[in-house]
Structure formats: structure tokens, C-alpha cells
Amino acid sequence: MDFSSLDPVAMIVLLIGAATPILLAAIGELVVEKSGVLNLGVEGMMIIGAVTGFIVATTTGSPMVGLLGAAVGGAVVSMLFAFLTQYLLSNQVATGLALTLFGLGLAALMGKSYNGIKPPRMDRLNVDGLTDLPVVGKLFFSHDPVIYLSLVLVFAVWWFLNRTRAGLVLRACGENHEAAHSLGYNVQLIRFGAIMFGGACAGMGGAYVSLVRVPQWTEGMTAGVGWIALAIVVFASWKPWRVVIGAYMFGGITILQLSLQALGISISGAYLSMTPYIVTIVVLVIMSADRKKASLNAPACLGKSFHASH
Amino acid sequence: MLRLEQRPQPSKTMLYMTPVMAVFATMVVGGILFASMGIDPFRAIYLLFIDPFTDSYNLSQLFVKASPLILIAMGLSIGFRAGVWNIGAEGQFIMGAISGGAVGLALWGSTGWWILPLMAISAALGGALWAMIPAVLKIKFNANEILVSLMLVYVAENFLAQMVQGVLRAPDGMGFPESRNLGRNDATSLPDVFTPLGIDAGGVVMLILLAMAFFLLQKHAMGFQIKLTGESPRAARFAGVKPGIIIAVCLGISGAAAGLAGLFELTGAAGKLTIDFPVGYGFTAIIVAFLGRLNPVGILLAGAVLAGTYIGGENAQFVLKLPAAAVTVFQGMMLFFLLGFEILINYRVKRLRRAV
Lengths: 310, 356
Description:
The complex is a heterodimer.
Chain A: H1 8-34, H2 42-60, H3 63-87, H4 92-110, H5 136-140, H6 145-163, H7 165-175, H8 177-182, H9 187-213, H10 225-235, H11 240-263, H12 269-289, H13 291-297
Chain B: E1 2-6, H1 12-36, H2 41-54, H3 56-81, H4 89-106, H5 115-141, H6 145-165, E2 192-194, E3 199-200, H7 201-219, H8 221-231, H9 233-238, H10 243-270, H11 281-291, H12 296-319, H13 325-341, H14 343-346, E4 347-351
Antiparallel strand pairs in B: 1-4, 2-3
Helix pairs in contact in B: 1-2, 1-13, 2-3, 2-12, 3-7, 3-8, 3-10, 3-11, 3-12, 4-5, 4-6, 4-10, 4-11, 5-6, 5-10, 7-8, 11-12, 11-13, 12-13
């Protein structure tokens, strides 16, 4: 077998592309979980984002407007989850699952007449003198805007959570909602906002799949990326920068497994396609094995409903 | 202003009324959705919710579709009661079908009454072992069973693809990625028991297991421990309940049930293993479990309702050109409404009067 055809620079560029949907969804979910809410509907919000982004982009002819539409679409469906869990105190696990099942169906219904269409292309960055540089140009100055946006978003989330008062309040809701309530903060409203932010991020992640990665619309095209994003948040111990490491690592595994399939390695394609999911399990096991550390990192009120009864 | 006020005691009436309200609300909102798509809402609702239960042909199909849903949901509900969230039933369903089907394919050509039971045992074991992966990882390494069991669905799907292209491919199938047709082979096809209602041997096994689940939850000490773990994990620990055993039992039962359902689907409705064999019963069963209030009798009824939407949905595709995905939307909507109405069990809505 000829490994020399694997160009490391090209593979890193591909890796970043494969990682970006996971990164976007995971950074949104991180904020949601920091506020104390476990939203298992990431996959559903992503697929809604994938279809709304696709519809808006093909109708307007602009992929960036499509991305915006996807963010709105993801945020709107997440409001269903937010309303049910925050104001009707429904079980977060069950409601998240409902959101995923509902989202997959609704997306298929919405995208019915969009099968087989090509979306408008998203332009990549092209700066004279920079993009043409050997290696560095390809690695840093040749991506589409969403990739830069996703990294800016990670920085913004880190800054918001750790350097602003509002971020502190959001974290307080996640660590001790009773205390946050007694200080006069509206826990439910803050969580509602966090859930909508998570929905918008997941929606954009989904749109990146349908507009850039694939690019076309097929039913169930997110293929578990939303669930992997949930696992990445655990992997990252709820720290924004580690989400980048986790997402890029998964991007790397995906690209490596695809390249090996393309090379016609003797391992069957079906077995190689399993690897991202198996690696997710392995990562979860490693990160959760130390119970004390795992429970220190997780927001203390994660998954608990809050009702101000007085 | 409306305001929620906690009831002194959970309302029994609401406990049983909420699933009915959820189905009714789904009809109303679904009807509006259909009307907006230019489909006659009354026809559509009739086809989805009434026709499956009145038309005799549909009635014979109802049980065929409902039994795998009920069987899987029964297993899942035991885990959900204990707070063990197995949402990878779809994967256990596939692995059950593969391991049971493999036995049938290995014995191809032999005859005997014992072949089908042997396949069923193999399927239950296959499903249970697949579910033991998240169980062991949860017990030993504290890994989240929701994510692990779900990831294993994708692994199982790929494994199925590998099997139907490889060792389980029909030797005389001209290279198509599918197994021999077990449903057309006397020794490996599921016998009918009561044709007018579509009850086959799988349906009978399902009813027996449902009765056993009822007994487990109502009369057996293990059932009590399961319920206690779900309602108050701390109290359960003080009472000496070992959480590891509860996790293993819950995942084992639900995995075995899903595996059996996979085999019944394979030897009954589907006939052969193909890449398209899994149709999402493992996920729909989650809705069945909740709509049935995690109670064996409720699950029986909820399974019939959800199976009805599948059958009605197929008819509506023909008659009204209703897209297939509309049924999934319907099912998701039903779960949303149910979860929303559940607040009425513990709270009541009060109108707030402004103080003078």
C-alpha cells in the first residue's frame, strides 16, 4: 500500500473541516450544560439546522444567509425543549430524546423537495500573498469563514464564561440553582437563553454539514454527529478550549478512516466506519473512570429541574 | 396570570389522562399541520388514528407492527423506572437479528421444531450481550450509558452492513448484500397463531413476557428495588440495593427483549437481513414506553396506537400522498405533548388574583 499519497497538510485541512460541525454543536452544548441543563436533542437541532440552512441558502443563493437561517432554525426548535423543561418541568433526558426524534422527522418533511440539489458554494479565504505561502498558507489562510467563526465562537464562550459577570451568573445557575435564585436571578430565563444559544450553535453545525461538508441534503445526514458532540463536552471536562482539542481529534479520526478506505486498505470499509463511534466510547470511558474528578468537573445541578415554589 | 401550584398528592386521574390528552392534542395540532400542507386534515387523522383499528386488514397488520414495539418498550420501561437510560435498543435489535439469524442460516437445510427456539435464545443473548457493553462500562468506569448505548447503534449498523456483504450473504443471491430469506423457509419462519389479529408466535412470546414484566414490577423484590432506585437512589443505597446489579439487570432485560424483537421481525415481517433491516423501532419504542407510562398494560395500549400510526401512515402515503416523514413528526409530537402535560400530575394551574 502506498501511504505517500497521504499529504499531511491536505489532511489537516480536511480534518478541520470534518471537526467544525462537532465543534460548533459542542461549544453550544457546553454553555447549555454550564447553565445546568442537559439537552440530549443536539442531533435533532443539528438536522433542523442542516435542512433550514440548506433551504435558505438555495433560496437566497447565499451560504452565509443560509448559516444564519440555520442558527435561527436550531434556536426555534430548541425553544420547544426550553419551554418544556424550564416551565413545564419535564424530564430533561426524555425531552431531549423527543427533540431528536421530532427533529429528524420534521427535517425529513421539510427537506422532501430538496433532495439532489446542489447548494451555493461557500467561498474560501483567499488573501494575496498569504494563501499562496507553502504549508502555512494552506493551514491557516485557506479555510471558509465558518471555520474561523467557530474558533472565534470558542474564544467568545471562554471569555463570556470566565471573564464576565453574566457568565458567572450562568455558571452559578449550573452549580447551585437555589443559590442563584435566592440572589434574585431568574434561573429559568437564563437557562432558556442558554438553551437557545445551544440550539443556534447546533443549527450552524448542521448547516455546515449540508452546505460545506457533503454538500447536499439527505435524510438523517448528521449521522450521530450531535451525539458525538455531547460526548466531546464530557471529554472536554466542560472547558471551552478542550472542546477544540476533542473536536479536532475526532475530525482527525474521521479523515484518517476515510483516507484508509480510499486507499483500499485490507480492513473492510464498514469496520473503518465504526471507528469514530468506538473512539467516542473509549474517550468517554477514560474521562469518566476517575469518579471524583468527573463529578468535580461536571456542573453540580446538571440535569436537575428548578421550580421556584415561593 | 396563571400560576402553577404543587398538588399535595400526585393526581391519579391525571396520571392516566395525560397520555389520552397527548394523543388528542397531537391529532389537533397534526391536523393543522396537514391543513397547512394542503392535505385534508380529517381524512389524514381518520387514516392515522381510526382506520387501523376498524378495518379488518389493518387490524391483522396492527399486531405485527405493534409486537416488536411493545416488546422493546417493555424492556426499556424497566430500565427507565430505575433511571437506567438505555436508548440504544435499535442496536440491540440489530445484534439480536444478526445473532439469531446467523444460527438459522448456519442450520440452513435442517428441519425441526427446535431451530426457531434456538434462534430466539441466540437472539436474546446477542441483544443482552450488546447491552452489557454500556452496563459494564457504566458499572466499572462510570461511563454515561445514554451515549455509549447510542454510539453502539451506529457500530451495530455498520456491523450489519459488513455481515450482509460478508459471511451472512446469500450464496445464491447474485452478490446482492442480503441474507437468504429466513421467512420463506419453514424451519426458520415465524408460525401464525391467530391470523385475523395478526398474532404470530412472536406475539404470543411478547404477551407472555409482558405478563412477566408486570409480575416483576408488581410482585417481585427485584422490581421493588428497581422502582426504589429510580425514585430515590439514596434510599435504595441505604436499603442495601446494589446499583451495579440494577444497571446490569435493567440493561440485560432490555437488551434481550430488543434482541428477541429483532429476531421476530427478521423471521416474520422482514424475512431477510439487509442493510435496510432496521427501521427505527428501537427509537419509536422509547415513545411507546413513555406513552404507556412505563407500565406493562399502558405499553400494550401505547404500542397499538404507535403501530396504528405506522399502518395508517402507509395508507395515507397512498391515498393522500402524505410524506413518510410526517409519521415520525407525529410520533415526536406525541411525546412532546405527553411530557408537557405531565406537569398536571404534580401541579395544578391556578389563576392568580392580583392582591388589592
